[in-house]
Amino acid sequence: MLVFAALPGAVSAQLPPKAPNSSIITLTPEPGFFTEPGIAINPNNPQQVVAVYQDNAHAAYSFDAGRTWQIATGVEPSNYRVSGDVSTAFDNQGHAFICYIAFDKLGTFNYWGHNSSRNGIYVRRSLDGGKNWDSKDIAATEQPEKTPDGKDVPWEDKPYLVADNSHGPYAGNLYIGWTRWTIADSRIQFVRSTDHGKTWSKPIEIDNVRGLPRDDNGAVEGFAGAVGPDSTLYAVWADGNHLVFTASSDGGLTFAPTRNIIDTAPTMFSIDAVARANGFPQIAIDPRGGPKGGRLYVTWADYRNGEIDIFCSSSKDFGATWSSATRVNTDPVHHGAEHFFQWMAVDPADGSVNVIFYDRRGDPKNRAQIVVLARSADGGQSFQNYSWTDQPFNAKGGFIGDYSGLAVMNGRVYGIWTEKPENLTTRDTIIRIGVADFSTSAATTSSSPPKANLK
Questions:
Q1: Residue 106 Cα distances to 4, 112, 177, 358, angstroms
Q2: Integer Cα distance of 83 and 306 in angstroms
Q3: CA–CA separation, 342 vs 405, rounded Å?
Q4: Domain locations in the chain?
Q5: Residue-wise over 212-231: b if at least 16 C-beta within 10 A, else e?
Q6: Is the distance from CB of 92 to CB of 42 less than 8 angstroms?
Q7: Cβ distance 90 to 127 under 8 Å?
C-alpha cells in the first residue's frame, strides 16, 4: 500500500495500490491554461490514441498505444478568440474527431445566456489518427452576435461527441448533445451527422423539462451518450437532484420521453481549494451479452454522505430499471474526503467498468488530491481502487476544469487529467496522461511499468 505524504504534523493515510503496469507522462511540459481533457482509442487500430484539451482547442496523438505522444497543429479555430469544452471520438472508419465550442467573450458569470457573444459548436476531422486535421472545421450549430432585433443570442455549452461504432443499422453516425443557455432557461440540444461529420442536422431539443438558466444548480446540464451494438443511442444528463435518461432507436432522429432515473444530491458543489466542481454523469454500455448488448452503467458524484463520493448504477433492462447506487471510492463512508471529476469507460473486450477521479482521502486537510483509477469486474457491484498518481497536488483555488477523460480497450486503460504544478504561482496547469494495463499479456510480459516519453 502507498502512503500519502501528508502535511507536517498530519496523520498519514494509506492509499490504494499502484495501478498495474502503469506509466504517466506530462503532455504539456510547459504549463499553460490547460484543462478539460478527453481521450479516445481507434477501434480499428488500438495503437492509435488521440488526446484533446483546452484552451484553445488542442489535440495530441500516439501511434504506439500511448508510449509516445506528439502535439498536433492546426486544431484551434482562427476566427474566434477562445475555443474549448473539447471532446473526441473515432468513428467506424478510424477517423478521429474533435468537437469544441468557440466564442469571443463569455456572458454574465454563471448566467451565460445573458450578454453572450457570437458562439457555436464546431467539429474538425483527422483522417490519419490525429496527426493532421482538416484545415476547415464544420459548424454543428452557431449563433450570431445578436438576434435581428438586438437581443442576446443563446449560449451553446458543454458539448459531448458520440460515435456509433456498432454493426447496427446506423453505424457511422456521429452525435453531439449539449446545453443551450437562454436568458430564461436551459435546454438539452442535439444534432446528428449521417455522413461522417461532413454535415449536421438542425438542432432539436430532447429534454421534456427545461432547467434553470444558471450554471450553479438546477440547470439541465452534462449530456453524455453511449451506443449499443444495435445502434441504440442512450443519453443521460443532470437536472437538479436527479439524473435524466432517454434513448433513440432510429439513429438520433427521435427520442423516447425523458425519465428521471436516479435521485441524487446536487451535482454542482463547492470544494475547498478548487474554483469550481461538479459531478455530471457519464453513461456506458457493455457491448457483450446479445444483439442489444449487456448492462448499461451510469456514474456521477454527489454529497449525499456529507463528503463528495463517486457512485455507479447499472441497468440490466436497457434503462427501464436501475440498481441502487454503488460507492466507487473505497475509503470509509463519512471519512470526509472529497472525490470528484469522475469519468467512466467500459472495456468492450471484457466488460470491466473503469472510472477515473480525483481523490483526497490521503489529505487530512482535504485540499490536495491524487488521481485514482477504479475498476469493477463484477458488473459494477464492487470496485477495486488503484492509485494512478502518488504525489498529491493542491489547486490552490485555481480552475482545473469541469471534467477528466478515460478510454479503455483490451485491458489497456488510458486516463487524462489536469494538475497544478506544486511551485507554480500563476493560474497555469498541465495535462497528464496515465496508462494502466490489466491484460493477461501485460501481466505476464512486464514486471515493471513501461516508460512513456513525450516527443
A1: 39, 7, 20, 27
A2: 35
A3: 8
A4: 2-445
A5: bbbbebbbbbbbbbbbbbbb
A6: no
A7: no
E strands of 55-172, at which residues?
58-62, 70-71, 82-90, 96-103, 119-126, 138-143, 155-163
Q: What are the pLDDT tens digits along the chain (455 aa)?
A: 443 443 333 334 578 999 999 999 999 989 999 999 999 999 999 999 999 999 999 999 999 999 999 999 999 999 999 999 999 999 999 999 999 999 999 999 999 999 999 999 999 999 999 999 999 999 999 999 988 888 899 999 999 999 999 999 999 999 999 999 999 999 999 999 999 999 999 999 999 999 999 998 899 999 999 999 999 999 999 998 999 999 999 999 999 999 999 999 999 999 999 999 999 999 999 999 999 999 999 999 999 999 999 999 999 999 999 999 999 999 999 999 999 999 999 999 999 999 999 999 999 999 999 999 999 999 999 999 999 998 999 999 999 999 999 999 999 999 999 999 988 888 899 999 999 999 976 654 443 443 444 54
Sheet holding 296-305, edge to edge: 282-285, 296-305, 307-315, 326-327
Distance of alpha carbon 27 from alpha carbon 107, whole angstroms: 31
- Our measurement of the distance from residue 293's CA atom to the centroid of its chain's CA atoms, rounded to an integer in Å, reads 22
Asked if the 2-445 domain carries CATH number 2.120.10.10, the reply is: yes
Question: What is the C-alpha separation between 318 and 248, in angstroms, rounded?
Answer: 12
Q: Where do we find the cell 452503467?
A: 297
How is residue 22 written as a grid cell? 502503469
Contact between residue 240 and residue 262 where contact means Cβ atoms under 8 Å apart: no
Rounded-to-integer distance, Cα 352 and Cα 330, Å: 17
